[in-house]
Amino acid sequence: MSYVDAQPAGSIPIDLVKRDNFAAWQARLSAPARAWVKAGNFRAEPDQHVWLPDENGNPARVAVGYDGSDTNITLGSLAMRLAEGVYHLTSCPGPQTLIGWGLGAYQFTVYKKAKRPPAQLVLNSSDGSYIRHTVEAMALARDLINTPASDMLPTHLAEAAQNLAARFGARSRVIVGDDLLTAGHRTIHAVGRASADAPRLIDIAWGKPENPAVVLVGKGICFDSGGLDIKPAAGMRSMKKDMGGAATALGLACLIMAENLPVCLRVLIPAAENAISSNAYRPGDVIRSYNGRTIEIDNTDAEGRLVLCDALALAAEAEPRLIVDFATLTGAARAAVGAEIGAMFSNNTEIADAIYAAGRRDEDDVWRMPLHQPYKAMLESSIADTVNSASSPYAGAITAALFLEQFIGQIPWVHFDIMAFNTRTRPAHPEGGEAMGLRAVFKYLRETYGG
Ligand code: BES
Ligand code: ZN
Ligand code: ZN
Fold first, then answer.
1. Which of 40, 56, 89, 260 has a 20 to 30 A CA-CA distance from 314?
2. Catalytic site residue from 200, 266, 305, 446
């Protein structure tokens, strides 16, 4: 862990130096300290730090650039840049600043030893447990995404979900393999049946029934080969992360339960490997989905929306107050907003606006895209109620979202089409698996339902 509760003797102070006060601050330093600042090219910019000496010339404290805002960036690289040891802040910045430290300390150490232990920060703010819970929820999601498909097949994903449920005393149920057919979840079965590891639907329930019902749904494609419409090598290379939506939903559930939000939570994870075998589903097949709509398969690589549609229809059946889904659904969303912003769709403007604002404050950026109804024409099939992939090469993220909307009815719904992966290291965002939209939705839920 990159935080400690109590300040040990010898803990090293960190001063946050406001960029606007830089000249005045520098003027107050001793001549040798000023020389260190100059040599370190320190200008109190965000993501900059410099060591300062004591009167004997030994490194004694750290100055960190600070623009005055509460942001993950300020301390987001320090845990891995400062030498191992315990540090404490000499001022009390906001929670996002403190969360940045923990997010930046993350390392995925299952298959390779940690480069080094992170530096540790003394955390005694009143928000301490919220900060730890947030960092822990993000680490859970990141670990799940970073784990390769060989160790993160539907069996493993279900196990991880059930472990999480058990930790918080939540109920869980998993429908596996052919039982999906009996339960009416034919799309999840079709997508996952070619894998040696059977597809399944994970269903977790937590919280008091009298609280407002919120359902989280996550795309849990443990590996996306594309199916018979096989992906080219470059595109397939990153597809262990195709369960990033499931990881994000589980991370968010972890935070909701740890913070004991007054909601009645349900988490639905359709988990499957989109594999190739003689029993794989084919282009041209027609599948009857859980809510009765028939779907003609145009492309087996548009599998995410197929596993999601059965889970969303099941979610909608119980008429919850809100359904939120997370999915690494389309390359088109990445073309539209890039790898570092979540594409958000919603049938409810008030909720979308509130989540957008929450994301801005917590540096979990999302951007709303339109559910442009006329594009539904691109989803027409000549022999079924809909096709799974649009006839046009344009607006792929929108047509995917419109496909999902067919299974939601009138329930307030938010859909995130996310990257779930940092392609480069930024402060608080090490390269690798990433939960996107998790903190924005958590903030929205807390603001709306309290707790
Ligand atoms: N998992 C992919 C989408 C994806 C690709 C997400 C790259 C993030 C990065 C999804 O299952 C897929 O293959 N989508 C197709 C849909 C198409 C066949 C309609 C796509 O986006 O090309
Ligand atoms: Zn695909
Ligand atoms: Zn996919």
1. 260
2. 305
pTM over 0.85: yes
Residues 218 and 310 in one domain: yes
Which of 91, 119, 147 is the C-terminal boundary of a domain? Answer: 119
* CA 438 to chain CA mean position, Å: 5
Q: Is 334 in the pocket of ligand 1 (CB under 6 A)?
A: yes
| Given 19, 34, 231, 293, the catalytic residue | 231
Q: Which amino acid is at 206?
A: W
Kindly state if the Cβ of 203 falls inside 6 Å of ligand 1: no
Domain end among 93, 119, 145: 119
Question: Tens digits of per-residue pLDDT, 82-138?
Answer: 999 999 999 999 999 999 999 999 999 999 999 999 999 999 888 899 999 999 999
Q: 406 in ligand 1 pocket by Cβ < 6 Å?
A: no
- Maximal C-alpha separation, the chain: 83
Same domain, 112 and 139: no
Is any atom of ligand 1 closer than 6 Å to the C-beta of 399?
no
How far is Cα 98 from Cα 5, in angstroms, rounded to an integer? 13
Asked if 38 is an active-site residue, the reply is no
334 is known as an active-site residue = no
